[in-house]
Design a protein that fits this description.
This protein is an alpha+beta fold and about 325 residues long. The protein has 9 helices and 9 strands. The strands form 2 sheets. Strands 1, 2, 3, 4, 5, 6 and 9 form a 7-stranded antiparallel beta sheet that branches. A two-stranded antiparallel ribbon has the order 7-8. The termini are far apart.
Length: about 325
């Protein structure tokens, strides 16, 4: 017969395990989506450390696969597995190849949007006006920002404004960016966000932070490009999700897992030899996604399977504009 002491010991063990397996965050992501409606957060974007990236942001594309719980765990009713969309790397995505024809059938359009890739854009910089009273700034004041497709047109349109004479990331003559949160219906709206009209220099403290910590190489925070084996697993995950099956930890746990779910003990990927030790990169890529770059902000919008990014036709013009300003 189970005693009260046994029950308490088991509950304590479960709680300790939950705490130890919970993903740790360095708090580098500034959660601007948590500001109150009517508030404005002012940020100052900085360049990417990658000299080959002309822009000061990188685009991230992921697909969220919903599952009816986790196999063998009756306590989990619904869960999400997030996988990278390889169109982000200029390759054909096995999921989108399957989903695109769905938009030609009206009865499948909603399902198509459900499995369509989600875009977000990763920036870095300083938070200069912070309406979040409970925000805990990290030791490194250079924060990362996950910007949704709703805000990115405002950023890009500003770059095309002929009245803006210098790159907004310039240390001496750059511009702040005001993230303004309002609402449209029941959803948050950021369309009134804007660039500052007056140039300003980075403070001595901000310049010292760059000198001390350096800039982030933004591509380091993108999902790892899947191998051929991982692409096969992504396709199988997609098929299992569409078929309404629960997530199978034993089958997929060594590859992609829902938040908070641990890999099966002793699991390894087929390409790993029995005497090999996973590299740091492999270990990180297998880890449960944390609530940082791995999770799009709540207000992030979905791309339609039929329409292109509304600002993508300006990409070449923006690129030319930035290069011209850099050369000038």
């Amino acid at each position: 017969m189970t005693s009260l002491a046994d029950i308490r010991a088991r509950l304590e063990a479960q709680e300790n395990q939950s705490k130890s397996s919970a993903p740790k965050s360095d708090n580098a992501i500034y959660p601007h989506w948590n500001i109150s409606e009517g508030s404005t957060a002012t940020v100052r974007f900085l360049p990417d450390a990658d000299p080959d990236n002309t822009f000061f942001w990188v685009e991230r594309q992921v697909i969220k696969l919903p599952f009816n719980g986790v196999k063998g765990d009756p306590n989990v009713k619904q869960t999400i597995v997030q996988v990278p969309c390889v169109e982000m790397f200029g390759e054909n995505c096995p999921i989108l190849s399957e989903v695109r024809p769905w938009f030609k059938d009206a009865s499948l359009e909603d399902m198509g949007r459900k499995y369509w890739k989600k875009r977000t854009y990763l920036f870095q910089g300083f938070v200069r006006a912070n309406p979040l009273g409970d925000d805990v700034a990290p030791e490194n004041p250079i924060r990362r920002f996950i910007i949704s497709p709703q805000i990115i047109p405002v950023i890009k349109n500003g770059l095309m404004d002929p009245e803006i004479e210098e790159l907004p990331t310039d240390y001496m003559r750059g511009l702040d960016f005001h993230i303004k949160k309002t609402s449209k219906g029941q959803y948050a709206d950021y369309s009134t966000s804007s660039w500052a009209r007056k140039e300003s220099a980075l403070t001595e403290t901000e310049q010292a932070a760059i000198e001390a910590h350096g800039l982030f190489d933004l591509k380091d925070f993108l999902p790892k490009k899947p191998s051929e084996a991982e692409l096969r697993v992504i396709k199988e995950l997609f098929e299992a999700s569409v078929d309404g099956k629960p997530y199978d930890v034993d089958k997929f746990g060594a590859y992609y897992r829902p938040y908070g779910v641990e890999a099966p003990e002793g699991s390894k990927r087929p390409q790993e030899s029995s005497n090999s030790t996973p590299s740091e990169t492999t270990t990180q890529s297998n880890a449960v996604p944390t609530s940082t770059e791995s999770d799009a902000q709540p207000e992030a919008t979905q791309d339609s399977g039929e329409t292109q990014d509304t600002t993508s036709d300006k990409a070449a013009d923006i690129l030319a504009m930035i290069k011209a300003r850099q050369n000038g």
